[in-house]
Amino acid sequence: MQSKVALLWCNAAATSLFLLSLRAKPPPPNFWKRYYCSSFYVAAKGTPGQPFFPYHSAMANYLITGIAGFIGSNLARTLLARGENVRGIDNFATGKRENIAEISGRLDFREADLLDLDAMRQACQGMDYVLHQAAIASVPRSVADPLGSNRANVDGTLNLLVAARDAKVKRVVFAASSSAYGDTPTLPKHEEMPANPISPYAVSKLAGELYLQSFWRVYGLETVCLRYFNIFGPRQDPNSPYSGVLARFITSMLRGEQPTIFGDGEQSRDFTYVDNAVAANLQACTTPAAQAVGRVFNIATGHQATLNQTVAVLRGITGYQGPVQYGAARAGDIKHSFADISLAQKHLGYRPSVGFEDGLKRTVAWYQEQGAPMAAQASERSR
Ligand code: UD2
Q: How far is residue 39's CA from residue 83's CA, in Å, rounded to a whole number?
């Protein structure tokens, strides 16, 4: 009771002092309007790195590497919508200017390469969190060019970690890969399993994880690794031979063209809609260190689908009824991938809010909005 009375007195005293200070020095014009609307105002006009509103200090500063890429550009949109300050870097090796065109006025964007240590030091300056998405993300591309993958994914990650450590950022979250598990027969894959990478890409992503853990253990830089399981969704590039399979299948089928399955189509993946990966990144930043830091988490849907099953679902969504072509299996490919997500659920509070089929529907709708025709219209036109 006594403590409640004391609290009331403190409250009254603080309010009186505040009101007196307002009498002595009136607030700037539009103070209250700007105070209450600040988050909307920031989303519309804020300039990252240059706080325009001295009364608002709740926003954090995020650096997204690979911001013009598929996952980076989705992350940026979510952070901006929450009123956070976003700085982004990209070297456009695989990222696309159009992915950030409509948000570029609200970003502090810098065209820079992970291999440029000075640029990384400048990029990390004043940042709270680094979301490291930049990579050469492709198994077959790493098979064709292992040196290029290693430079971007290993040397680039190490440069960024050195810069983040020296700039004293609060935490680095890393886009790791389910490819680290390789072809071990145990399913679902859980984080305690030994890594068994097959492709140079998988090795490079695992090396990135180990560097993040080393920087936590040796330098005390807080790091979290998220092992993504085949992320798909809006803004995934469908046009490269190294593009993710769902971007390729969906756009082919919408054009009325037959998709190519490498192998017998009985390989399976735990396809994960991009919003789930975005949510996991934000949770990884704010989860208390004891639960998250120095750890590796699977980020997936927890749903296993073969490519043949996936094509069947996509036929229903896109209307494509044509044939499917089968080609040779790809070198470095793994057969089955399916995640146990209980560790991320327990420690990060991660929940895959968008399921596999719902994610496919949203993705198909997005490609259609971008001008991809429905399969029926496409075959009509080609007649
Ligand atoms: C790996 C990782 C994934 C992510 C990704 C980055 C695994 C299980 N997953 O994805 O988490 O890091 O690398 O690139 O290692 N395919 C076709 N037709 C096509 C394209 C692909 O059949 O037109 C097949 C391909 O042979 C593979 C499956 O589809 O069996 C998935 O291929 P992907 O390139 O989309 O992704 P994947 O599994 O290599």
A: 5
Q: What is the dihedral of CA 72, 253, 367, 335, to 10 degrees?
A: -20
Task: Give the Cα separation of 298 and 290 in Å (integer).
Answer: 18
CA–CA gap between residue 157 and residue 65 (Å, rounded): 10
pLDDT in tens, 68-85: 999 999 999 999 999 999
- Dmax (CA) of the chain: 85
Judge whether 6 lies within some domain.
no
Point out the catalytic residue in the list 201, 228, 273, 367.
201
Burial class (CB in 10 A: 0-12, 13-18, 19+), 28: exposed
> Residue 207: pLDDT band by 50, 70, 90 thresholds?
very high
Residue from 264, 168, 227, 179 nearest 348 by CA: 227
Whether 242 is a known active-site residue: answer no
CA angle 109, 111, 115 (to 5 degrees): 125
Residue of higher predicted confidence among 328 and 383: 328
Count of structural domains, the chain: 1
- Is there a domain that residue 35 lies in? no
Separation of CA 326 and ligand 1 centre (Å): 15
| Mutation pick for ligand 1 pocket among 177, 257, 272, 310 (CB with most ligand atoms within 8 Å) | 177
Q: Is the CB of 298 under 6 A from ligand 1?
A: no
Tokens of 263: 């192998």
pLDDT attached to residue 371: 86
Can you give the CATH number for the domain in which 186 is found?
3.40.50.720
Q: How far is CA 60 from the centre of its chain?
A: 17
Q: Model-level pTM? A: 0.86
Confidence of residue 44 (pLDDT cuts 50, 70, 90): very low
Strands 129-132 and 108-111: unpaired
Q: The domain containing residue 83 runs over which residues?
A: 42-382
Closest residue by Cα to atom 39, ligand 1, is 139
